[in-house]
Structures are given as C-alpha cells and as structure tokens.
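hey so i finally got around to running the thing on that chain from the lab meeting. sorry it took forever, my laptop kept dying and i had to restart like 3 times. anyway pasting the input first so we r on the same page abt which one it is
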Amino acid sequence: MKKIILTVAFCGMTAGAFAQSESIERILQSIEQNNRELQAGAQNTEAEKFEVKAENNLENPGAEYSRKFGENGGAEVEMSVTQSFDFPLLYASRNAYGKLQGRALDLQQAVLRRDVLLRAKELCLDLIALNKMKALYEQRIKNVSQMEHLYEKRLKEGDANILEVNKVKMELMNLNADVAENNAAHRTALQELLAMNGNMPLEFTETSFPVLPALKSLAEVSSEVAGTDYELRSAQAGTEAARKLVTVNKQGWLPQLEVGYCREGATGDMANGFIVGVSIPVFNNRNKVKAARARQLSAELTQEQVNMKVQADIQSLYNEVSQLGDALKLYDAALMERTLDALMQAVEAGQISVLDYFTEAEAIYQNQEKMVNLENSYQKAMARLYKNSL
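ok and heres what got predicted. didnt touch it at all, straight out
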C-alpha cells in the first residue's frame, strides 16, 4: 500500500477575496488534473459541442449517372452532380447559436468542477480537524501517562489507593479508543481524497486552519457571490442559447437551395448544363418554432429558480457563518491550556485528588473538542459561501 502523507501550509486571505492556502491550492490543482469525473465531464462537453457544430454542416453532395441503350445500338448518357444547402442566413444564425450553446456547456462543466473541488476542500478541512484532534489526544495521553506513573509510585508508597490508579488506567484506555476512532475517520477521509485524485499520491499533515478575513455585510457578500455563481451563469447562458434557437427555427422556413452540373445526350451529341433547384420546408419545419419557444420558457423558468436558490443559499450560509463566528469568539484556547496546566500541577502536588482532576479536566477537554469541530464547521461554511472562487 502506498504511504500517503498530507501537508498543508496556510496563507492569509487577500482583501475582498476568498483565497486558498498554498498547499490546499496545490491539492485542488492536482485533483482538477487527475479527477476521473472531471475528465469524463470535459470529454462529454467536447462531444456535445461537436454535435452542435455538426448540425450546421452542409448537406452531402449527390451524384447520378445512367446509360441507356436503344434498339439501333445507340447509347444515351445522363450524369449530374448536385449540392444542396440552406439559405445562407440560416448558417450564420446556427453558428451564433452554436457559440452560445458551447458557452452554456462550458459553464455546466465549470459547475461540476466547482462542486468537485468544494468537496475536496471540505475533506482537507476535515483532515485538519482530525489532525488537531489527534494532537489533543496525544497531549492528553502524555499527561495521563505521567499521572499513571505518579500514582503507581504513590500506590507503592501508600499515598494512593487502587481505585485512583484504576481510574487513571481507565482514562488512558478510553483515550486510546478515541485515538483509534479518530485514526479510522482520518483514513476514511484520506482515502476519499485519494480517490478524487485518481488514486495518485498526495501529501498533507497540517494541524492549523486557514486564517479568514472578517465577514463583510450581507449586501456586499450577496453582490459578490451571486455575480460569480457558475450555476446561475450557466442558467443565464442556457436561456440565451434557447432564445437564439427560436430565431434559428423561425429562419428554418427559408427555402433550401440546390445547384449542380449535368451532362446528357447520345453518343456524339452530348449537352452540358447547370441544375438549380429550390426546396420549400412545408413539412419538416412544422412545430419546430413552438418546440423552441417551449424550451426558451423552460430555460427562463430554470434561470429564475436557480436565481432564487442562489440567493437563498447565500442568505442561509451567511447566517450560518455569522452565528458560527460569534460562537467561536466565546472560546479562549489559551485560558483552557493554562487551566489544564494548573490542574496538573495541583494533582501532582497532592492538592486535589485524581477524581477531582478528571472531573474538572473533562469539561475543558470537551470544550477543546467543541472548539475544533466548531472551527471546522465555520471553515466549511465559509468555503461553501465562496465556492465559486475555487
């Protein structure tokens, strides 16, 4: 099995923009290059673009040749070569539609790319949280191991009882179980990130979250985010293409032209000439305009729905980020560390019992874990809010 180590270094955010850390950016670039879903989507986009272009191709040229023999031994020859084509204006309209549809397809691929990279970033943030938890557990195991050594010594000297020693051992046992559970969650997240990278190796061992800027006002965030949302831009492009398709189908009533060359006659008496023909689309364009208008209406309704969804998501995520940010401000990591150190010194000095120590320390440990989980939720909510900058 390949050894996988993840390393992340974080840089600050530029003013007014949601910047990526240098290492997370490298991971996202690697996933963008190696992800099979993105590769398949890119190929499908290209295929659909070619299909749109193929609709504007010329008709195949036609050729006919016949040779007829009479009773007197003479032969009559007929030969013609023709080329049919639509009215020239129709090619220009279809070409314009193809460009609009191609842009809509590119934006659909951009939505897929954004969603894949957002999932990858959320996995990176989960791994950072799990690494932070691992560091907390390791520090707790170190403290409890020291306490175990201390109380086994005191038990031999008669200054402690077996219940206190067993309490320390049970705490150590629970911590080891927590570490095993944390490691399992870490491996699961890491394997998922690895799969997103096409099973190509990645490196990542960071224990610090990115430093994020202060949250702007809702109006500023809404204007910034909605203006760059790929899903909304894709819906807008789809509407523009649908409108152009109505024009194309309206022009489908223009006549189809045919030109060619012909040669016919008996042996020794041949005649050459030109062929000019017109085909009136009385039947094959029927209901196409109605269908195109229905597609246009569908695209406009889809755009309206996407716009409402984007605005609702911005409002919801903004509220979530605001509330999580306010909750994070309530935690004082330095105070919790100083209190744990003071409790350790007190139990070593015999000022409090081991039971009192674990009662007081457990509440602090829980707050440390809540702080890590809260910060992870805050980072992920901010990433979702600014997902279109990935």
